[in-house]
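The passage that follows is intended for readers who have already worked through the single-chain material. We present the inputs for a multi-component assembly, then the predicted structure in tokenized form, and finally a short commentary. You are encouraged to pause after the input and sketch how you expect the pieces to fit together before reading on.
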Amino acid sequence: MTPAADPLSSTFAALADPTRRAILARLARGEAPVGELARPFAMSGPAVTKHLKVLERAGLISRGRAAQQRPARLEPAALKAVNDWIQDYRRLWDEKFDRLDTYLEQLQTEGETK
Amino acid sequence: MTDSMTDSLIDAPGVGYEVTIERDFAAPRALVFDAMTKAEHLARWWGPHHFDAPLCESDPRPGGAIRIDMRGPEPYGTSPIYGEYIEVDRPDGFSMVLRGFKQADGSWGIEHVSTFRFEDAPGGGTRMHMTTVVKQASPAMIEALRGMREGWSQSFEKLESVLGEIG
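Having made your guess, compare it with the prediction:
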């Protein structure tokens, strides 16, 4: 599946990695150049660049064009889309569990009257 | 988007593609376990409000298949759901993978691995801990459900007021 066809799946895939989430957490405090992002991870510049590419394709960050270091910046819209989706998804489970609740009650009442 | 939303999405390990729900049920663990894994029970509550399950098969043992047809009111139609149990440990918990809403390109509209753990709730009954890791997610699926549910909750509100009048 191409990211363009389903942006949400590529956002989920990008978030499913602890290093990338840590990079996002750092960027939530402000934009940063690659060198600074690499430091806490004992990771090479190219390795961090690879993670940044995944995040950029998922729309989670953007990168400056001008400077050599191409500082990375958090793009909150993609995270908001994930958050909205998660809220809806959670609601679906909650509805199912509401029904389960009622059903369990019914089962136990039936059990008592039998 | 608030800062706290950003924090909760990206700071906690796993959060961002993981949903955790904790809930108490007023029934013993074995009954909750069976209601969630036996086909005859699953068919009675699976799906959002106003949906039913005309086909429901479940083989709760590791590798056992799950097959549910989730049917909604028109224009929603029937959605086949496929899955397998991964771990099964009655009445302590189980995990399963579910896939559904196959897209035109053959990919799944949703694929998720859910883990359920049951313990005795302090006040009696069962406390459930559920964690779902979303592997694939299509926004279209949720939007379809949401739109439909709004339409139907309106008609059911009408029905309720009618029932109130004649009751």
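Commentary: The first helix of chain A runs from residue 7 to 15. Chain A has a mean pLDDT of 84. How closely did your sketch match?
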